[in-house]
């Protein structure tokens, strides 16, 4: 892939060269608002590319905006391998994978910024491809950017070089290679005024110059998390694990792009209390990136396994409550672990269901065979499906084969778990003993609010973030159940004791703001 970014026009002029192995002379690609300039094919002879010939191609009509169009290219006959070269340009306003930020939306406010987000099916607006997780590719790339900019990709750097363009303007060409097969949704590009800080021999933290020190402090445990994940899974296959802290316009907590995880700056709490997000994205290096759901209908195999690898007790309990909310809000079809998507937009089906219900399924399997045996099974599963894809039925067959003759596994109700909507049919039985203190404190504040005597005298200064969130979530849940809010005086009393308005932790601050808004506590806005 050879691409040149134009920040003024907010477009990318690119050439995609696809090496195609085929048995039928038709190549069908996903494209979305790409201005295709030319298409050529060249045969491969003894691994060498022969002369190009112009190819015949056509586009099927656009029927659904999120799908874009099918581009069909006629390939040369009499061969099983060729190189297809497509010269094209992305759209300024309709490239759904791209975000072009003006300087005002960056931390430095001097240079513009560019990043991509291809999950679930937005890669087709960036490059002609087979934009489904069931197709994995390796790739090389060269990206030309202004001389002030640094380019990073979800791949390993193979160097850079500076030069002048035809107008004498300075530019830099960055080169990359991804040797591990990846689906198109894991292609990622970022261009901006970036610096890095080295955490270990395989981990760097990247961000804008004014943010990079804070990010390096916040995510200093990255190498430690990576080693823990390796001990639970397989050796790390991707070479590097760098973290990029983006501007606040990045719309997700994190994105598991191989070699370069994207994270939001709202994780910069100042005390590493939100670094668990990095643990989740690291886990994706195995569950999602190495072993990938074959279609988006099996998304739970990516996310349920990743939640299982996080191994946080509070995460499991909080996730159960989040699952209840999602099941109550989404259509029944989307509350199934394996929904029927057809040609619907996968983004429309997004909720906590694949994360939390998927985790519950794995947790219930684990309870049947024991933690140690299930840990061995997890490694076997990752080893069996590494570099390829998996469906729910393939996973089911692998479980049944691995635990063949195990009565508790043979009686597992797969059909209900996978294909019925609603909450799980089995209570996962999470250990709630660790959350008792948080739930008790929430109840104590409810009691105080009712009679204004006996202010809860409990310090939470030594509590973990998970415990504080459990306290606030319980309080919000109790208030919602009773359709009431805390009095302004109670909120003021809590603020005096806990100083949550000044918390640097965005998850704590979000819940505190919800409580204040419910109570019309106007001081929160001062």
Alpha-beta content class: alpha+beta
Percentage beta strand:
15-25%
Mean of residue pLDDT values: 95
Distance between the termini: 50 Å
Compute the number of strand runs.
23
Helix content: 25-40%
Q: Radius of gyration over alpha carbons? A: 25 Å
Q: Please give the largest β-sheet.
A: 9 strands, mixed
Tally of alpha and pi helices: 14
pLDDT < 50 runs, ≥5 residues: none
Shape: globular
Describe, in short, the structure shown.
With 526 residues, this protein is an alpha+beta fold.
How is this structure best described in words?
The chain has 526 residues and is an alpha+beta fold. 31% of the residues lie in helices and 25% in strands. It contains 14 helices and 23 strands. Strands 1, 2, 4, 5, 6, 9, 12, 14 and 15 form a 9-stranded mixed sheet that branches. The mean pLDDT is 95.
């Amino acid at each position: 892939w050879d691409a040149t970014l134009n920040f003024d026009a907010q477009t990318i002029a690119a050439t995609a060269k696809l090496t195609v192995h085929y048995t039928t002379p038709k190549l069908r690609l996903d494209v979305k608002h790409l201005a295709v300039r030319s298409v050529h094919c060249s045969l491969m002879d003894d691994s060498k590319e022969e002369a190009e010939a112009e190819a015949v191609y056509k586009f099927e009509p656009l029927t659904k905006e999120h799908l874009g169009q099918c581009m069909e290219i006629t390939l040369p006959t009499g061969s099983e391998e060729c190189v297809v070269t497509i010269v094209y340009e992305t759209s300024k306003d309709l490239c759904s994978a791209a975000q072009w930020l003006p300087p005002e939306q960056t931390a430095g406010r001097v240079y513009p910024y560019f990043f991509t987000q291809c999950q679930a099916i937005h890669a087709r607006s960036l490059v002609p491809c087979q934009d489904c997780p069931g197709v994995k590719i390796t790739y090389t790339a060269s990206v030309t950017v202004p001389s002030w900019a640094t380019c990073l990709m979800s791949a390993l750097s193979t160097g850079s070089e500076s030069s002048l363009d035809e107008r004498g303007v300075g530019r830099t060409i960055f080169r990359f290679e991804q040797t591990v097969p990846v689906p198109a949704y894991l292609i990622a590009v970022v261009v901006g005024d970036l610096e890095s800080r080295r955490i270990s021999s395989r981990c760097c933290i990247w961000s804008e110059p004014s943010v990079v020190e804070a990010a390096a402090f916040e995510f200093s445990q990255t190498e430690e998390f990576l080693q823990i994940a390796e001990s639970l899974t397989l050796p790390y296959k991707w070479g590097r694990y760098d973290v990029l802290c983006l501007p606040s316009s990045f719309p997700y907590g994190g994105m598991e792009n191989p070699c370069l995880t994207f994270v939001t700056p709202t994780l910069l709490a100042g005390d590493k209390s939100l670094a668990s997000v990095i643990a989740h994205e690291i886990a994706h290096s195995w569950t999602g990136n190495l072993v990938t759901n074959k279609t988006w209908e099996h998304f739970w195999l990516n996310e349920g396994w990743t939640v299982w690898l996080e191994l946080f007790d509070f995460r499991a309990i909080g996730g159960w409550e989040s699952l209840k909310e999602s099941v109550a809000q989404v259509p029944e079809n989307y509350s199934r672990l394996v929904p029927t998507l057809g040609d619907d937009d996968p983004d429309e089906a997004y909720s906590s269901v694949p994360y939390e219900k998927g985790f519950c399924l794995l947790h219930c399997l684990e309870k049947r065979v024991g933690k140690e045996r299930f840990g061995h099974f997890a490694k076997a599963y990752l080893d069996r499906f590494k570099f390829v894809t998996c469906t729910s039925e393939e996973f089911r067959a692998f479980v049944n084969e691995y635990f063949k003759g195990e009565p508790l596994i043979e009686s597992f109700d797969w059909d209900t778990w996978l294909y019925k909507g609603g909450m799980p049919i089995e209570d996962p039985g999470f250990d709630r003993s660790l959350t008792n203190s948080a739930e008790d404190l929430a109840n104590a504040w409810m009691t105080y609010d009712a009679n204004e005597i006996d202010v809860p005298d409990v310090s939470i200064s030594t509590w973990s973030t998970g415990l504080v969130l459990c306290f606030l979530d319980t309080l919000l849940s109790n208030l919602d159940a009773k359709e009431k809010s805390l009095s302004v005086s109670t909120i003021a009393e809590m603020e005096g004791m806990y100083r949550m308005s000044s918390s640097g932790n965005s998850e704590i601050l979000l819940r505190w703001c919800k409580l204040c808004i419910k109570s019309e506590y106007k001081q929160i806005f001062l």
